[in-house]
Amino acid sequence: MNIRTLCDTLQPLFDLSTEVMETNFHYQCLLAERIQKAGKPLEQMTLAEVRQLVDAATADYQAATNPREKQ
């Protein structure tokens, strides 16, 4: 595998790391709880599994912090 392919393969991991590190403590705790409840050690999860947990935690966090106005 050449360096370009390796970097392209790892890019989603770098993006995910940056995305999570730029969040606040409350979001990170929510994500950590989701990871713990997944029933699989983080080291054994695929990038896709972690991405799903991040996406779900993000959606739930946004719903909790930005409630829709009642009509």
Features:
71 residues, single chain, mainly alpha, globular
Verbal overview:
With 71 residues, the chain is an all-alpha fold. It contains 3 helices and no strands. The protein has helices spanning 3-21, 25-37, 47-65. The protein starts with a helix and ends in a 6-residue tail after the last helix. The mean pLDDT is 88.
Helices and strands, with pairings:
Blueprint: H1 3-21, H2 25-37, H3 47-65
What's the total number of strands? Answer: 0
User: How much of the sequence is in beta strands?
Assistant: under 5%
Overall shape: it is: globular
Radius of gyration: 15 Å
Any low-confidence stretches, pLDDT <50, length ≥5?
none
Mean pLDDT: 88
Calculate the terminal CA-CA distance, rounded to whole Å. 56 Å
Structural class computed from helices and strand pairing:
mainly alpha
Largest sheet: none
Order of helices and strands: HHH
Helical fraction equals: over 70%
Total of helices: 3
Short description:
This protein is mainly alpha-helical and 71 residues long.
